[in-house]
Known about the structure:
Layout: H1 2-20, H2 26-30, H3 36-52, H4 63-88, H5 92-97, H6 108-134, H7 142-152, H8 165-202, H9 207-262, H10 267-290, H11 292-315, H12 321-364, H13 372-387, E1 393-394, E2 398-399, H14 402-423
Helix pairs in contact: 1-8, 3-8, 4-6, 4-9, 6-9, 6-11, 8-9, 8-12, 9-10, 9-12, 10-13, 11-12, 11-14, 12-13
Amino acid sequence: MKEFILGYWCNSKMHRIQRFCFNFSIKSIINLNVTKNDLLSAIDALEGLERSARIFDRRNSGKYFQLQSLLILILNIILAFHFLLLSITDNQTIIFYSGDFFVSSSERKVLNYILHCGIIMPCMVKIFLLYLHQSGRKSFLHILDEYKGSLKESNKKFSYSLKDEKLFRKSYYLAIKLYEYIFIGVYGVLLLLHLTNITIIYNHSTLQQLILQMIHMAILVILYYPILSSALWFVSMLLIMGILAYFAIDSLKVECDELISLGNYTRHHAESFFYKQSLLSNWMDWVNARAAWIFITFYAYGCFHNILILFCLTQFKYDNLGVKMLLSFAYTLILAILYANNYSGTLIGQKASVLHRSIYRLSINTGKLFNIKVALKKLQTLERLASRKMGVYIGNYIYVGNYTTLLLALECGSLYYLFCANIN
């Protein structure tokens, strides 16, 4: 009976994974010669996944899309509180019928609470995406939609100049492919780790417990698929927009250096440069403002609970290998997401700092054909950059840079030692 249930479940999931990955080969990911049609095909495939998993409604498909997304969110919140209930109760009847995955573990409550956190964090992203749609404002993906339009129509110019557009195109393509494979990898690994855990527990439980656990496992797999895809999709979109910001700032820096080297530049060239810089700064400030609460919530909640996972992994002993692997994988995944976003934000800040210094040099080297309007525009730009640095912000007020990254690492280390000192 056990082999039949596990075999059927594994076969069904492998069939779904094979169908999803059929059109994506490893060769296409490492292909360095990415044409416009290659990128357009990848973007269309990504948008198809967005619609099928009810991630984000770019095209305003209608109220049914949003109702389905809301239903997915509500069901996952119920699932999260199901694990929260298991983390605080000792009632054996509730534990039995709730299909507790960690029923034989001495740290059952802590492990169920960590599963609760693993569902709540993607739910935060889903709430944010629903809020963006309901607010009725311009989507934060409008800049990527505009870039897609410029790929389709050669006469349509992109708002932000990209000196190395081919390299950005390759980076965009690679980010989409990485999302597709990483999502399937993360989802598959979590599934296998849960199945491994249930298989080991079966040696210490009855057939009825195994059946109930498999039923709850099926519910978890079905409901967690769209919510996890939404969370990883949002992280991928942030990465792509970060890459876009980095290349746009680099292009402005190159253009500024060209103006400096010219010595005598026209009013049109200067005004064009400052217009592009102001447009990019406005877009980055707009994204920071729109995503302020999800950034600060995810960083605070994610960092705290990631340290809690590390504490449970290093300070408690588990006889079940599946539990150790599950905790290790969860810790690594959250850590990678947090520090990858921190690192990309730091790179953007460093590139923006170089641009700031270049603009300062430009303000000294005015040229003969300079006028008062351009001089005031330069002064306004320098004052704006001095009052608020150009880059990524957490909560729209914590600037992401080298200092922030170091401070985050030290604070997380201090929190870990605080747990060790007070709980042990």
